[in-house]
Amino acid sequence: MQTTSFSQFNIPSIVWASPPPTTTMLRGKTTSSQRLSPPYAVASSTSRHQVTHSMPPEKLEMFKSLEPWVSENVLPFLKPVETCWQPIEFLPDPSQGPEQFEEEVRALRHRASGLSDEYFVMLVGNMLTEDALPTYETAINTLDGVGDETGCSPCPWAIWTRAWTAEENRHGDLLRTYLYLSGRVDMLMVDKTLQYLIGAGMDIGMENNPYLGFVYTSFQERATCWSHGNMARLATQGGDPMLARMCGTIAADEKRHEHAYTRIVDKLLEVDPNATMLAIANMMKKKIVMPMHLMYDGQDPNIFEHFSSIIERQGVYTSRHYAEILEFFITRWELEKLQGLSGEARRAQDYVCRLPLRVRKLESRVKKIEPRQVKFSWVFNKQVSV
């Protein structure tokens, strides 16, 4: 179920269509490329027109100069490993002996039995989003001026990215183990989907540009926080308070990470308001796509659209949430109050500040589509409503 054709109005939607064939801009050079054939391609999908290294070289020094600020204002959002929660704290613990372990697994399965197949489709989607971390760390490390050039760089930007990845890695581990123990999903199909997803990568339009990259991560962390928080709510309603606690704990991590990325954009607006305002508008015009938008399970070429329809229908993440996140950042970053912008940046400011109203107007005109049944390989090919 696709709720509306937002793309014709250049307005973001929770459901994104397949982008056009790839065009890569390499510092003034344009090359066309076709996506690889399966097994690593997303079935019948192609990439959007890509631009790379769009940040002027002179801006690199600015990001270098911000390293002490990152150490003082961003790295404190990380938690020491010894104080972090770990997945085993929420799951049956085999170290307690076989009888206790089996009893805890039976209790987990009993709680899981009250949740719908639609819920497990959404939980698998959230797990896949978290488990595709190799793609995200790679993408951040391609951002000019802030990447980890050696794999173990002492640069504060690189320290943040590695430690952020390490914290996020627990999310996928926790959800994956729960899904495995629940017995509710076909883990073979889940694992295949993850391999396809990491192999496909993601095409979110960051252009190796840290301005664009940090706008995207700010938005995406907030969206992910809401998604996990809503999954916690539904788990409580479905009779699994432990799963609700898991999802809520993950949401709290996402919120903390959101604060870090939001603070980075705060600083960029302070030191370079024109470029940052243009970056915000750039990402909004492209739409903030989910990082798993190139998902494929080897069978359904439209699996991402089907997944998106379920989370829209279930209220886990919707176009209304998209508008509310936009409104939040417009207020949080005080975009309407920015003064002294260039003419181009003022136009970008006007576009972004008017965008939530346009999204809400389009949402009010959405023609609701009756649910239909689609088979999802993740839940033993059962039919679920999308």
Structure summary:
With 386 residues, the chain is mainly alpha-helical. It has 13 helices and five strands. It is globular, with a radius of gyration of 21 Å.
Please tell me about this protein's structure.
Pfam families: FA_desaturase_2. Belongs to the fatty acid desaturase type 2 family. The protein has a 3-stranded mixed sheet with strand order 2-1-3, with no helix packed on it. A two-stranded antiparallel sheet has the order 4-5. The chain contains 13 helices and 5 strands. With 386 residues, it is mostly helical.
Keywords:
three-stranded mixed β-sheet; two-stranded antiparallel ribbon; disordered N terminus; 13 helices; mainly alpha; 386 residues
Question: Would you spell out the secondary-structure blueprint of this structure?
Answer:
Elements: E1 22-26, E2 29-33, E3 49-52, H1 60-65, H2 67-73, H3 98-112, H4 117-131, H5 133-141, H6 156-182, H7 187-200, H8 210-237, H9 241-271, H10 273-286, H11 303-313, H12 319-332, H13 343-364, E4 373-376, E5 382-385
Parallel strand pairs: 1-3
Antiparallel strand pairs: 1-2, 4-5
Helix pairs in contact: 4-6, 4-8, 5-6, 6-9, 8-9, 8-10, 8-12, 9-10, 10-13, 12-13
